[in-house]
Design goal:
Layout (H helix, E strand, L loop, with lengths): L14 E3 L5 E3 L13 H19 L13 E6 L7 E4 L5 E4 L3 E4 L5 H12 L8 E7 L4 E6 L5 E4 L6 H7 L12 E6 L6 E6 L1 H6 L14 E4 L11
Parallel strand pairs: 8-12
Antiparallel strand pairs: 1-2, 3-4, 3-7, 5-6, 8-9, 10-11, 10-12
Length: 233
């Protein structure tokens, strides 16, 4: 028997997932004419939840685009049963209770949170969804050759050529720093495109354009001074 007295959580519509995937309101939910929380209190809770959501969503660059295999923390304010950590599948989707498959690839965390909030409104009153990038597995750059720590590095935000070299610990003493080579996949032509850059041109001369933004999949090769000088520079 349902009490006529409303508790603090009475403004939340609880839903259940039944065999066969049907979604129905919980049989024990409060009647539609039951008094909700005072407007001021409800607005305050929503504002608090939104603030927490904004904090989580800003954990990475706001323009980061989610890719396959990225790991996301999905937080639905005051709904732990709907909150979970997920990994984006190779098909660009992940699964959630109630709303099932969600397309994540190609969206920013903020955009994804907005879309999930909209879809949850059918089942949850005033939902607040936050999406946090837990692990970057889809966007990487590769640094090879004469850098202190060669290897694969996640590309979480806008990163320039010099910043990429800094991430790898900088040049070794044997590095031919004016013979940097960058390989990049392109959409307009098959295969790889090859760029070259000079550290001295960027830092000491007017070659600032060579300090371009790195893209996911870029491979930077810093050869040794003892190697044959690459043509074209």
């Amino acid at each position: 028997m349902v009490s006529n007295h409303c508790v603090h959580d009475c403004n939340i519509l609880w839903v259940g997932i039944f065999p066969g995937g049907a979604v129905e309101p919980d049989a024990g939910k409060l009647p539609a004419d039951t008094s909700a929380l005072p407007v001021a209190t409800a607005q305050a809770e929503k504002a608090t939840g939104q603030a927490r959501g904004d904090k989580l969503s800003n954990a990475v660059s706001s323009d980061y685009v989610i890719g396959a295999e990225d790991v996301l923390d999905i937080t639905v304010w005051r709904n732990p049963d709907l909150s979970r950590q997920v990994q984006v599948r190779p098909d660009g989707r992940f699964s959630m209770p109630i709303i099932r498959d969600v397309v994540a690839v190609g969206k920013t965390p903020t955009k994804l949170a907005e879309e999930m909030t909209s879809r949850l409104k059918e089942y949850v009153q005033n939902p607040v969804v936050a999406v946090t990038l837990k692990e970057v597995n889809s966007s990487n750059i590769f640094l090879l050759g004469e850098v202190t720590n060669p290897g694969k590095y996640p590309l979480k935000s806008k990163t320039t050529l010099l910043q990429g070299i800094t991430i790898a610990g900088g040049f070794k003493e044997t590095a031919a720093r004016n013979q940097i080579v960058i390989f990049r996949f392109t959409e307009t032509a098959p295969g790889l495109k090859r760029f070259t850059a000079s550290y001295d041109d960027i830092v000491l001369r007017s070659g600032i354009a060579d300090n371009f933004e790195l893209k996911s999949g870029d491979t930077l090769v810093i050869p040794s001074e003892s190697m044959v000088v690459f043509p074209g520079r």
